[in-house]
Design brief:
- It is a single chain.
- The protein has one domain.
- Strands 2-1-3 form a 3-stranded antiparallel β-sheet.
- Helix content is 52%, strand content 22%.
- By secondary structure, the chain is an alpha+beta fold.
- A hairpin with a 4-residue loop joins strand 1 (24-31) and strand 2.
- The protein is built from 4 helices and 3 strands; from the N terminus they run αββααβα.
- The two termini are 26 Å apart.
- The longest helix has 18 residues, at 77-94.
- The protein has helices spanning 3-12, 41-47, 50-64, 77-94, and strands at residues 24-31, 36-40, 68-75.
């Protein structure tokens, strides 16, 4: 099995109730009137701090909560892999 397949298996079985905005590239919001918003979080991070993005998203989700039918998060999987690998390596090293 190759590394990519290993990661595919990990991501396939992963359930997340919280995703740090640092790992999100895009958010696609679908509304009940068939309108779709595609929010480029990468671009937003270049223009404003993470805290401001999170606050704006919280307000957006709260304001449109009754009209939103789906939210799709596109993650920066390479960054997730890199950070997870570092943390697992550190955990294993410290717990010998």
């Amino acid at each position: 099995m190759n590394k990519d397949q290993d990661w595919d298996d990990i991501f396939e079985n992963l359930e997340m109730s919280f995703v740090p905005i640092e790992y999100v590239n895009r958010i696609i919001i679908k509304f009940d009137n068939n309108v779709t918003w595609d929010i480029n979080v990468d671009d937003s991070r270049k223009k404003q701090p993470i805290e401001q993005i999170e606050e704006s998203l919280d307000q957006l989700f709260e304001e449109y909560e009754n009209q939103i039918v789906a939210i799709d998060y596109k993650l920066d999987l390479e960054r997730v892999k890199k950070d997870l690998s570092k943390r697992v390596f550190r955990f294993l090293k410290l717990n010998k």
